[in-house]
């Protein structure tokens, strides 16, 4: 077993062990992938201030996200198809998050169902929903989430229509996937993955098949996914969904100050500054470039979280220093899951926590909740000077 010290170490194993169509799904953005790339590269433009002769004993990364205690302000983001990166992937990721003491967010487009995850975990998790037109389906979905004791709903706002992702189209990755001859050849080379998938009954979208109208099997799923998403979504509809849930709500996909103000006006418990990992609007600014101005605009009214681009504990620290109260990892934990299952997710969390803790100390802090912009050296034009 190689020595694993970075998320990139897990990523290399993930690529080797997982079928190309599913690895590419996790490691791709829309169109030219400019935003996908800059989500990570823009972190490098932020530099850290080293401080010395500061007491570094009794450090803590403990914090809270929407009033819930967390071992570090890092949650596992909702990622669709996680159960195809590794058999029972959502269950394994949720168990790793629970043991580590951080939130897990289950995607509506998960392979394992809400009930599957609830049956295999002890603590409440968060549940992500898309803005679906069918009120009956949404009400039943919320009822299932409540029955599973989900402690918050994450409503994704930036996927009314699907951004074009060239790799997915070329690989035939649709819902359900189209298995071409090249895909079948690749699948045949991933013996460990294949044997694990044969050993589980969870291979289709567990929150949808058998629950959505006229979706009784995987073959009927394609039409539903094409028709279900609400392209007429507006802020009134968001308010309706929040009322339908009637519990803690996090609004995901905010990348503009005006949208952040509207989300705060609705009374959301938190917003997530996110561009969907660069998978929707290519050419948009990276999430880290937009974070500070959104915090300045609404940070006194709503808890601001951050998503898109985190690959290390230093990335987490930089986002927190710019005002985020919590962060999310998607690809980083999926790399771990695809590489080593539950143990890989734990390793990803360990890697991020170790780097977060040590970097915080070297910047002169012992308490993650006390970190602020003073630890950063920020380029004068970092947020951009745009006409």
Structure description:
It is a single chain. With 387 residues, this protein is of the alpha/beta class. It has a single domain (7-377), classed as Aldolase class I (TIM Barrel), CATH 3.20.20. Helix content is 42%, strand content 11%. The protein is built from 16 helices and 12 strands. The strands form 3 sheets. It has an 8-stranded parallel beta sheet with strand order 4-11-10-9-8-7-6-5. The protein has a two-stranded antiparallel sheet with strand order 1-12. The chain has a two-stranded antiparallel ribbon with strand order 2-3. Strand 10, helix 15 (313-321) and strand 11 (326-329) form a beta-alpha-beta unit. Helix 1 (7-17) runs antiparallel to helix 16, helix 5 runs parallel beside helix 16 and helix 13 (257-265) crosses helix 14. The protein is globular.
The CATH class is Alpha Beta
Largest sheet geometry: 8 strands, parallel
- From the helix content, strand content and strand pairing, which structural class follows? alpha/beta
On the 0 to 100 scale, the average pLDDT is 95
Shape: globular
CATH homologous superfamily, by name? Aldolase class I
The Rg value, from CA coordinates, equals 20 Å
Order of helices and strands: HHHEEEEHHEHEHEHHHHHEHEHEHEHE
Count every beta strand, where a strand is a DSSP E run of 2 or more residues: 12
Number of helices: 16
How much strand content do the residues show?
5-15%
Which fold does the CATH topology refer to?
Answer: TIM Barrel
Distance between the termini: 52 Å
The parts where pLDDT drops under 50 for at least 5 residues are: none
Domain module count: 1
What is the CATH architecture annotation? Alpha-Beta Barrel
Tell me the strand order in the biggest sheet: 4-11-10-9-8-7-6-5
Summarize the amount of helix as a percent range: 40-55%
């Amino acid at each position: 077993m190689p020595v694993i010290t970075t998320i990139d170490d897990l990523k290399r194993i993930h690529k080797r062990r997982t079928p190309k169509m599913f690895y590419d799904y996790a490691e791709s953005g829309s169109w030219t992938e400019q935003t996908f790339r800059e989500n990570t590269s823009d972190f490098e433009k932020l530099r850290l201030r080293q401080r010395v002769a500061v007491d570094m004993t009794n450090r803590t990364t403990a914090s809270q996200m929407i009033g819930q205690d967390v071992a570090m302000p890092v949650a596992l983001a909702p990622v669709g198809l996680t159960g195809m990166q590794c058999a029972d992937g959502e269950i394994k990721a949720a168990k790793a998050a629970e043991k580590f003491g951080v939130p897990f967010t289950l995607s509506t487009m998960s392979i394992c169902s809400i009930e599957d995850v609830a049956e295999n975990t002890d603590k409440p998790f968060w549940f992500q929903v898309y803005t679906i037109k069918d009120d009956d389906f949404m009400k039943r979905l919320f009822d299932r989430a409540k029955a599973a004791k989900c402690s918050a709903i994450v409503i994704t706002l930036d996927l009314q229509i699907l951004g074009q992702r060239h790799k997915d189209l070329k690989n035939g990755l649709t819902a359900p996937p189209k298995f071409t001859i090249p895909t079948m050849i690749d699948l045949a080379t991933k013996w460990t993955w294949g044997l694990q998938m044969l050993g589980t009954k969870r291979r289709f979208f567990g929150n949808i098949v058998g629950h959505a109208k006229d979706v009784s099997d995987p073959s009927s799923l394609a039409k539903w996914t094409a028709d279900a998403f609400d392209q007429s979504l507006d802020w009134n509809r968001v308010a309706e969904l929040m009322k339908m849930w009637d519990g803690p709500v996090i609004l995901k996909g905010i990348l503009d100050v005006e949208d952040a103000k509207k989300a705060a006006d609705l009374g959301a418990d938190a917003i997530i500054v996110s561009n969907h990992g660069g998978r929707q609007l290519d050419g948009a600014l990276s999430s880290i470039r937009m974070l500070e101005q959104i915090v300045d605009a609404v940070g006194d009214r709503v808890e601001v979280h951050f998503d898109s681009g985190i690959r290390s504990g230093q990335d987490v620290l930089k986002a927190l220093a710019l005002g985020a109260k919590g962060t999310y990892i998607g690809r980083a934990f999926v790399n771990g899951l695809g590489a080593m299952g539950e143990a890989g997710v734990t390793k990803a969390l360990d890697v991020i926590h170790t780097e977060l803790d040590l970097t915080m100390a070297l910047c002169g802090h012992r308490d993650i909740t006390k970190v602020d912009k003073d630890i950063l050296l920020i380029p004068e034009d970092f947020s951009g000077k745009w006409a």
